[in-house]
Amino acid sequence: MTLTETASENSTTRAAATRATADAGSVAGSTTGTAVPLEEIVRFCDERSRRRAVKDFPGAVNGLQFFKRGPVRKIAAAVDSGLVPFQEAARRGADFLIVHHGLFWNPQQPVTGAVYEKYRVLFDNDIALYSCHLPLDAHQEIGNNALLAVALGLRVERWFLPYEGVPMAALCAGGIARDAFAARLKTLFPRTYTGIEFGSERPEKIAVLTGSGRSVLDALDAEGCDTLVTGELREEHFNMAQEHRWNLYPCGHNATETFGVDALGREAAAKFGLPYEFIETGCPL
């Protein structure tokens, strides 16, 4: 599947979920020729994402990670700080790129090979890079978990699984037949859907934790919840699902974490009257 085909497949549902909390439906194709100082967009993203209020893992380095010399004329978003997303941003004329997974995870790497090529694309095309990880998981309006719940038609009852005092996972009301719920997931994630179904056929509660889901498993039984939508799990979690009678739906780390950066990008573009694009990479993991 090409990048263009993947984008067409995924953008409609993601944008619909985003518009449920941000009226940004007309962002793409907004005023052209507008130029906005970099610091104004960074300030908006910091405040909207509540970046400073959420402590992240070591190496996350949330916020502006890569400076640009001139003003911003187009915003884009992608999940990862990869060479291809950087090249795509340059090809599409975007000069402010918002990502969920930034450049500086531990351990640090020498600036050679592919790392050097990534830096070179940013330098040569004067692209600023803004990273926002856990703040865009925990955010209860434009975060990955909140917007994935919206896209699935779920109502969040409360938040749980605190990290450094900030709850990360959404606990949603269930009451939907498992087959009907699985159908929603297959529609939303047609390439990455996986269902491991040993729990109830009409779950009363459904937990949502995008990206890596293993941290929430130990909390499910205590929450009276037997159904989890997440991004990725490990092989041994299949056995745990059998033993605990859980329904587990790992639907792709990348695919489940497109929502937050897309929402932030759309809102920033709408705020400043700039064009915007989301960059799909076709990642199946």
Describe this structure in words.
Helices cover 36% and strands 21% of the residues. With 285 residues, the chain is an alpha/beta fold. The strands form two sheets. Strands 5-6-8-9-10-7 form a six-stranded mixed beta sheet, with helices on both faces. It is elongated. 45% of the residues are buried. Mean pLDDT is 91; it is low at 1-8 and 19-27.
| Weakly predicted, low-confidence segments | 1-8, 19-27
Biggest sheet, open or closed, and with what strands and sense? 6 strands, mixed
Number of strands: 11
CATH architecture of the largest domain: 3-Layer(aba) Sandwich
> Which CATH first-tier class of the largest domain would you pick?
Alpha Beta
Number of helices: 11
Structural class: alpha/beta
CATH topology name of the largest domain: Udp-n-acetylmuramoylalanyl-d-glutamate--2,6- Diaminopimelate Ligase, Chain: A, domain 1
Strand order of the largest sheet: 5-6-8-9-10-7
The CA-CA distance between the termini, in Å, is 14 Å
Shape: elongated
What descriptors fit this protein?
285 residues, alpha/beta, Udp-n-acetylmuramoylalanyl-d-glutamate--2,6- Diaminopimelate Ligase, Chain: A, domain 1, six-stranded mixed beta sheet, five-stranded mixed beta sheet, 11 helices, disordered N terminus
